[in-house]
Amino acid sequence: MRTIWKGALTFGLVNVPVKVYSATEDHDVPLHQVHDKDGGRIRYQRTCEVCGETVAYSDIDRAYVDDGQTVVLTKDDLAALPAERSREIDVVEFVPSEQVDLLTLDKAYYLEPDSKSPKAYVLLRKTLEQTDRTAIVRFTLRQKTRLAALRVRGKVLVLQTLLWADEVREADFPSLDEDVRISKKELELSSSLVDSYSADFDAESFVDEYQKELRTLIDAKIEAGDTFDVADTFGEEDADAKSGEVIDLMEALRASVAKSKAARSGGTDADSDEDEKPKKSSKPAAKKKAG
What we know:
Blueprint: E1 5-11, E2 14-22, E3 62-66, E4 69-73, H1 75-79, E5 88-96, E6 105-113, H2 119-131, E7 133-141, E8 144-153, E9 156-162, H3 184-197, H4 209-223, H5 230-233, H6 249-265, H7 269-276
Parallel strand pairs: 1-5
Antiparallel strand pairs: 1-2, 2-6, 3-4, 5-7, 6-9, 7-8, 8-9
């Protein structure tokens, strides 16, 4: 797997350097559009609807249509926005795992420890397992601020982006408000049917039959010589087409707990600062989260 991002998980004063990898991939066989007469590849061109010219990607801006008006956003406009470029995955809160709605789960990523010692990583993993909690985090990927759930899968921490609340539609179906009477016998028969299909879920026992047959068809055509030379039909491709190590983990944890307790009890800043001071140690102090 290829690393797509590097950063650090931070909760309290604890810093866990990690590498990020895509946890999933598309297994569909890639298909192109071609001319049925000679197998030549069909390509799309970016054409301006006003002047009819073919436009290079470098000359394209973005726009938003609002009430009949087109608002053009130039590259400079977008570059002026206060884009977040932090390399930290900040834990916002730890919530009961059952409170995370499966409907909001989106893209999944694996996190790998990126330090000489994986102790802080393993500690966080074991803590999530023991408390049956999911960490809600914020981070920035490809200049977009994202909300995500941090959970455990086997021995690996998994970061799964979440849809924002306003991206989930409400299910408003009047037919579901009707008073439907279900008899005891009907419920018993339905439960019996469920029992007859009951099994332990094994994802590997399910196969995408369409993609399997498509691959078989392609292999048969190749074996039969029913192909074109790519160079003759497709032509040229379109040109447009480790963070700091946590040395003293225990001191960082103690300071984080003390700071959290002071905040909850409404203690003064001076009190919380005094609690935060780590005890003297022969080891370097834990790295604090950048303010």
